[in-house]
Amino acid sequence: MTSRDALNLYLESPHTSAILIHAFVVDVAAGPGAGLRTHADAVAYARSIVHLDPIFRQRLHRFPGDVHYPFWVDDPDADVDSHVTVTHQQDGDVEIVRRRTVELSREFFDFTTGPAWQLHFLVDLHGVDGVPDGGTVMIAKFHHSAIDGVSASDLISRMLSPTPAEPRPETAEVPVPGRVRALSRVPADLVRLAAVAVRWSTRSRTGTPPASSTAPTAVPATRFNGDKEPDMSWDLTWFDLDRIRRVKSAYPGTTVNDMLTAIISLALSTYLEERGELPAGSLSISMPMSTRSLTDATTANQLTPMMVDLHTDVPDPAERLRRIHESLVAAKESVARSTERTGPPHPLGALPSVVVPVIGALTRAPSTDPATAPVTTMLSNVSYGRGPLALLGAPVVGCYGVLPAVRGVHLTHSARSVGTSISLSVAANGQSLPDIEHYMDIVRHALDLLDPDVDTTRA
């Protein structure tokens, strides 16, 4: 495991989750049979797809005292049965999807019990928004130290492929060092870290300054920043992707991601303005950008955060969308330049394993009432394309994800699309967003503000 991947393991806490949730809505009635209904059905399905990726059979090997970064090693005794569950809806329980999604997002993996994956099936659903009558929701759960969102979407696309999919190519196995050998490397690793830090410091003082975008480096803090005790709330809304594409066509050059970012910007500023809390200065959003095409890295996590100005100080929705588009273009170019730049490695990539827990312990929590914050909110956007996905022959008609709120950023958004369906889910600290259903209403109305065919001047 690389240092970048291991950070997701070492620094995980109730304040900062490293759980990945990818969920899929299945129209069972449109399939060839009764669908997946029992635990035996779920086990049979899981056994049919575990050959697709090593993540299904690898368990964590961790060294005492964390003297070396962990390894993922094959587990010949991996028990598929214990990694799947089937839950039937109780009469009238229309909150089952929301409740189970929150529960699974807050339940950390026990790495001593085997590989870090789970499949949960909520079956025979009725009266649940976005789910066809009698449908199923499949929730796939992974850990960020083993896989990132882009790789997870590729894996699940193969899991749900209507035709047999190819497994991920095997990589060369790295021998696990013994405890004595791992411990003996610590002094050399500390020396290497010191050398990298010196080279990086020298380059920072004398070399080319880092590329930057137009995103502010600090923004006014809002109720969604500062330090709060964990209190997760979560909700979900659905959009017609064809409608979003139609609306964006009225703004030449914009993308679906531009539209989603503008929707979030409008919803965020409206919510804060209603409470008399909208800062005069603009707020910002962080979103991950894949660096797979820019580097030859072999880490499981090949994403880098991209900071984007939300232009919440621009009243006109159309003008705000235009500026957000320009800021997204500038941010992508900045990340590409920074990633491709040659030079010494960043010290974070050279941290010995024994140093990371110390850094975590020394890292100070944000203030409970800060004046500024590095970023206001976050967005993760994953598309499964227009190609068909199916579970045992029944079509997937929607999908959603969860981006957990983290310490200091208590409002996050996750967009997922498949076919003509797109979802936008919101995770927040309940103290910061006690009325999440109202916020979701504002999110839905934000699209109307951008739609030239909708007259929003009428009461």
Explain what the structure shows.
The protein is an alpha+beta fold and 459 residues long. It has a domain at 219-351 and 368-381 and 403-415 and 422-450: Nonribosomal peptide synthetase, condensation domain (Chloramphenicol Acetyltransferase), CATH 3.30.559. Helix content is 31%, strand content 22%. The strands form 4 sheets. Strands 4-5-6-1-14-13 form a 6-stranded mixed β-sheet, with helices on both faces. It is globular. Mean pLDDT is 87; it is low at 208-212.
SSE topology:
Elements: H1 3-10, E1 19-26, H2 39-49, E2 58-61, E3 71-74, E4 84-88, H3 96-106, E5 117-125, E6 135-143, H4 149-159, H5 179-184, H6 186-206, E7 219-220, E8 232-240, H7 241-248, H8 256-274, E9 284-290, E10 303-309, H9 317-340, H10 355-362, E11 372-373, E12 377-383, E13 390-391, E14 394-402, E15 411-418, E16 421-429, H11 436-450
Parallel strand pairs: 4-5, 9-12, 12-15
Antiparallel strand pairs: 1-6, 1-14, 2-3, 5-6, 7-11, 8-16, 9-10, 13-14, 15-16
Helix pairs in contact: 8-9, 8-11
